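TASK: fixed-backbone design
INPUT:
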């Protein structure tokens, strides 16, 4: 599920393989309608759990944002997503907020 306010897109619930494509579609739609903004924030404070598909969703959203000349920032990522990004060695490629603690 998602919640949209201004330039912020809030993901809620879990991001698993089962719902990854629908979340990606919703995120891309938000990017397309927000292409007049400079920065889009993906807020994950309401995300309970993730699997590795969450990384795929965000890397795909980053490509879409780049194609639209948008800057993206990811705030409040769940520990599971940060841990997976660290494990796969891709945490530096994610635009995580400055206060995100990487292990």
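OUTPUT:
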């Amino acid at each position: 599920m998602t919640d949209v306010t201004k330039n912020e897109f809030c993901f809620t619930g879990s991001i698993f393989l089962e719902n990854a494509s629908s979340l990606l579609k919703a995120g891309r739609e938000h990017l397309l309608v927000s292409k007049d903004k400079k920065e889009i924030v993906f807020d994950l404070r309401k995300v309970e759990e993730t699997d590795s598909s969450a990384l795929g969703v965000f890397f795909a959203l980053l490509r879409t944002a780049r194609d639209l000349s948008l800057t993206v920032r990811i705030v409040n990522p769940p520990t599971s997503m940060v841990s997976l990004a660290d494990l796969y060695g891709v945490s530096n490629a994610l635009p995580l907020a400055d206060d995100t603690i990487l292990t």
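COMMENT: The chain has a mean pLDDT of 89.
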